Amino acid sequence: MATTISPLPLTTEDVSPENSSFLYDYDYLDEMTFMLCRKDAVVAFSKVFLPVFYSLIFVLGLSGNLLLLVVLLRYVPRRQMAEVYLLNLAISNLLFVVTLPFWGISVAWHWVFGSFLCKMVSTLYTINFYSGIFFISCMNLDKYLEIVHAQPHHRLRTRAKSLLLAAIVWALALAVSIPDMVLVQMHENPRGMWSCYADFSGHGTTWKFFLRFQQNLLGFLLPLLAMVFFYSRIGCVLVRLRPPGQGRALRMAAALVVAFFVLWFPYNLTLFLYSLLDLQVFGDCEVSQHLDYALQVTESIAFLHCCFTPILYAFSSRRFRQYLKAFLATVLGRHVTRDMSQPSKSDCSESSSLTAQEEMTGMNDYGERQAENSPNNRAMGNTLVRGDG
Asked: Where the protein is mainly located, per its record (predicted)?
């Protein structure tokens, strides 16, 4: 794959690479240690574990993001900034999961798809690996501007600028994938068995260190710091104003941050440990084998982001919940009332009113109500700007 293009030898005498982002060579080992470091058990594990897990992610990611895409395209006539980013996130995730069957077959057998698809799939993998994370950051920034600055029509939140930012995200992800476009190619070893990986022509350790550092920085550390900052400020605003359903909104903010950390931290930590291994800070053959297993598992867990993250962001919006209800009702042939967000009078009681109020409230809902009540919001916005600086 494309994240850290390094080979893992089937045995130490046979240093032929098997392409996958979890596979590494071990140039830091001296020659004798390297010759004794066999990887047969690691490769045998990968041939079973990865195809199964990739298949699961492919099914979940394809179905979930297709549903999200259909709902957004069909029921959102004038897409606002949040929906623009969510739509691009769904497209990015779809393109990402489409690459997984290729890698699963490659790990279980060998690369049978030819040279063109070798470059194409590797490039698509990297572009959508990064663009998915970048679009999550865009959605966090949009929500920060909408709630903390309390300006639904902030100068950075125009439709034109949201489309421009989406184009910049795709361009940045494309730039990050240049090594795959240029260096990835097919290799035959042993005879008749092909693999697809980047050939760094003797500079493997330097490139691997650079790519891992790039992924740790762009794919985890900076997005995490931005997310913590944005949602900390959002949380402060919600605590100060105490809007209806404040608890639900705070729980949703915490869930988004925790989900990102839990999915991505183990994988990035493992990549960092591999860099220390290459720099001979610590480790031996046994440590490298343990890291091989750890990277396969943590990478697979990280890939679950394309299944769960869009759902979390989508369901933080009252609008999207309404769109989804309308879509499901159409599919199931049921009648939908024009206003599904309001409880009927016959069902109103003190407890049910509180429940409905909480259901309608979240981070996105709070921003949506600001946009729907612009005269009041302008006054509130001035207060918030003075209070938050």
From this structure: membrane
Token pair for 245: 């359903």
The candidate with the shortest Cα–Cα distance to 295, out of 257, 268, 318, is: 268
DSSP 78: S
pLDDT digits (tens, 9 = 90+) for 176-199: 999 888 889 999 877 788 999 888
- The rounded distance, in Å, linking the Cα atoms of 56 and 44 is 19
How many residues make up the chain in this entry?
389
CB 320 within 8 Å of CB 87: no
User: Measured between alpha carbons, how far is residue 378 from residues 50, 141, 142, 231, 276 in Å?
Assistant: 53, 20, 18, 22, 52
Rg (CA), the chain: 24
Count Cβ atoms within 10 A of the Cβ of residue 192 and give its class: 0-12 exposed, 13-18 middle, 19 or more buried: exposed
List Cβ neighbours of 110 (8 Å cut-off, separation of 6 or more): 193, 194, 195
pTM: 0.78
Fold of 31-327: Rhopdopsin 7-helix transmembrane proteins (1.20.1070)
Give how far Cα 83 sits from Cα of 129, 138, 255, 355, Å: 20, 11, 20, 26
Show me where the domains of the chain are located: 31-327
For residue 212, name the pLDDT band (cuts at 50, 70, 90): very high
Facing residues of 184 across strands? 198
Separation of alpha carbons 369 and 242, rounded Å: 14
Determine contact, residues 93/61, Cβ cutoff 8 Å: yes
